[in-house]
Amino acid sequence: MNVLSIQSHVAYGHVGNASAVFPMQRLGVEVWAVHTVQFSNHTGYGAWRGRVFDGPAIEELVEGIAERGVLPTCDGVLSGYMGSADIGTAILRAVARVRAANPAALYCCDPVIGDVGRGVFVRPGIPEFMRDHAVPAADLITPNQFELDYLSGIEIRTLADAKAAVAAVQASGPKVVLVTSLHTEETPDDSIDMLAGEGGRFWRLRTPRLSLSVNGAGDATAALFLVHYARSRSAGEALGAAAASVFGLLRRTAEAGAREILTVAAQDEFVAPSRTFPVEAV
Ligand SMILES: Nc1ncnc2c1ncn2[C@@H]1O[C@H](COP(=O)(O)OP(=O)(O)O)[C@@H](O)[C@H]1O
Ligand SMILES: Cc1ncc(COP(=O)(O)O)c(C=O)c1O
Ligand SMILES: [Mg+2]
Hints:
ATP binds at residues 110, 147. 41% of the residues lie in helices and 22% in strands. The chain is an alpha/beta fold. It is globular. The site of pyridoxal-5'-phosphate has 17 residues, from β1, β2 and α7.
């Protein structure tokens, strides 16, 4: 399996491609990594250095890959943190080129906009670009609860609200939705839910809430979900596999008290998660 992964990169730590690429490789996937930004570290530190690339820079790399004649062998495109709307347009052009070469390829868009604690952390114009262009073009999306609220225009309080919000975004295009870090009125305080929706069916998975707050977990989640979905063609199965790996990764990170997720030290969790959780039809 070959995945074109177009997202941010950091030199130090693990968000964006620095979180997503290695788990996919560990699962035997060839990853063609194109970086939308190259920063010293993730923006959660409040300070960072580095550059945001631009649309032409992304298109140039995709053109070079196309010149190798390999686009027909591309099974999926994964996008995340975009940097600018101009980069977003280049990503959607790449998706169109891949689909023209391989109509079966899947586009998984992680609509990185913000989260509940921090609010919006991307540049102006990106939230609208995600909602109006990227999400409608995707086959799979992996918003967190904050992002799903924004994309659907529904303020999610209950599981029923979450299902309605998933259905609302599905109506705009994506067949499969994975909601991460979901906390509804039905979620116990010591727990965290994920909800997957496909074809009018929904699956929920609940794990303990770990006492840590890290960046990059969502990027690894989207990558793992895409790979497992591409292999199983089942949102429920992909949910179970991705969530177990991410939980194992974060449990190890919490135990170590690390500021960055332990993508390398906890790599066995991507292949053989130490703990699995029931996937419940809801
Ligand atoms: N404190 C936590 N305890 C347990 N699992 C967590 C925790 N934080 C994140 N996760 C897991 O990682 C997944 C993705 O992280 P999330 O924070 O939702 O992504 P993002 O960084 O995109 O907002 C969540 O759905 C959850 O399964
Ligand atoms: C450069 C960059 N990419 C991606 C992300 C997304 O990380 P997360 O998986 O926590 O949403 C962040 C968040 O801080 C970031 O700074
Ligand atoms: Mg995210």
